[in-house]
Amino acid sequence: MSSPVATCPIAIRIQEDDFDIAREIAVLTKSRTDIGAVVSFSGICRADEDSSKIAALTLEHYPGMAEEEIKRHVDEAISRWPLNGVTVIHRVGRFEPGQNIVLVLAASQHRRAAFEAAEFLMDYLKTSAPFWKKEESATGTGWVEAHARDDEAAARWAKS
Amino acid sequence: MKVKYFAWVRERVGKAEEIIEPPATVRTVEELIAWLSARSEAYAYAFEKPKVIRTAIDHAHVKADAAIAGAREIAFFPPMTGG
Question: Which domain of life is it from (chain B) (predicted)?
């Protein structure tokens, strides 16, 4: 008996609307019995940034490139780990603390690949997908500065 | 070629996109940044720290020494802060 060929559906969406994590996992795993692990990461708008209070964040993106850049990293993740499905949803627009911003789902037969691929995708989303955050606080509005720690997190995955 | 600006680069330049026709002597991304910077105070302000500016040609990240010949769309933006 031949084993079923693993397929890896990819879903990449940039949208203003919120997402439902449980529904996205159900879509990814529907009619699949080869998936043994789904790791989900969600990024949420928080109220504090380096000790200042945030009232809201506005996410801007580069339409076209954002989808293509995410796809390039999803393809790389699929080449590096045995994945059975990947979903990336990034919201754009204005968000208040507590609201969802980003969702990454990585499915695999075993947990290790799913954990690592989800972390890899998030590290690259932060440093190379063309999105920018502007924050509103009591003192006014300003663009969020990139953090060196995010570059260092992405650099960990570079192949030597 | 079409040029697009995002986030604070867009705000400083004062427009989201435009069509430009740089002279043939402008060959690389860094030369294009220098050429744009000389256009007005707004561009000079947007590109005052050229090393901070990130560039994409036809939706792919490129370095400052990348050639611009044949580019359909060049985008300038600050370091990314999504996720």
Answer: Bacteria
Q: How many residues does this entry show for chain A?
A: 160
What is the structure's pLDDT at A3?
46
pTM of the model: 0.93
Residues in chain B with CB shorter than 8 Å from the CB of A62 are: 4, 6, 56, 59, 75, 77
Domain spanning A10-145: CATH superfamily:
Molybdopterin biosynthesis MoaE subunit (3.90.1170.40)
pLDDT digits (tens, 9 = 90+) for A32-41: 999 999 999 9
ipTM of the complex: 0.96
Kind of pairing, strands B54-57 and A93-95?
unpaired
**CA pseudo-torsion sign A112, A121, A142, A97:** negative
Q: What is the pLDDT of residues B22-42, one digit of tens each?
A: 999 999 999 999 999 999 999
Structural domain boundaries in chain A: 10-145
